[in-house]
Amino acid sequence: MSKIVSKSWMAVLLVLLCLIAGIGSFQAEASTVEPTSDSTFSDVQLQAQFWADELAAKPGYKTWKGSSITVSPLGPGTHSWLAIIQNSTQEPVGYLVIHAAEDGSFQLGEYGTGSYPLFNEQSLQLSLLQLELIPNQIKAERVYTHPLHAAWRITSSSMVHYADAVSGEHLPISKDEEWDDPAEDSLAASPGLTGAQAEIKKAIVIPFFNPYGRLPWLTKSPITMNDQTYSSLLKWVREKKEIRFTVESYEGKLLQVWSVVGYDTWEGGQLYLALSKEESDDRRYMPIELLVKQGKFYR
Hints:
single chain; alpha+beta; ten-stranded antiparallel beta sheet; three-stranded antiparallel beta sheet; 8 helices; 13 strands
């Protein structure tokens, strides 16, 4: 079982290791990212701003009020963008992942809160230090299939490494073939909000609980998810019951365990569950349809 490095210690550990190793800041290369036309980029920016403003008015997003947004292409071949939400001091407080839909509209793939968003620079720095790699001798790029399949692809000489896009944890794969799984690619177009002017009808946030405080995935059967409204699951969340989500990746080499700490229901019924791994403001909201396909829920 692999457990993600605590983000609350990430910055401290990073500074200490950098002082020891004498490594300065490093920016991931973006030369392989497909260019975006000015008009498309402007449309993405406007859509990101609308969704960010809608979220900022709801519980759990108070740091998003009055924020600014920086948008960049997510990765090669994805036709997707990463929108980083920044406060008045330009510190990250959250993110949105936006995909281009076939009909020309945009889809909200996932979103999250906290100071260590998807593809944060600290996670990359930590990965390089753990792998004992020198920044100016490597190339790093974002690779993204869906919310549970996002990583830094790091190449040095003839070696390829993959690291988690949020924590920087080294993933148990060392070849591109292990990442480019056709079964995973089929989930790239996972369900997500497409209503450009959609509003949030209900936003629930509950206190964090330690996902490893109990281990029901070892002793109990998973929750049967056969109700298309997921009413029982949402009721348990509102009642602050401890619901855990688990997913096995890379042929069972990596087990991730998350606490379910809330949900957002958008106009039209699109449902995003809030997942967290540690006690902080960091939450990742993912479409429930994707989570049901990929993993299991436990009480």
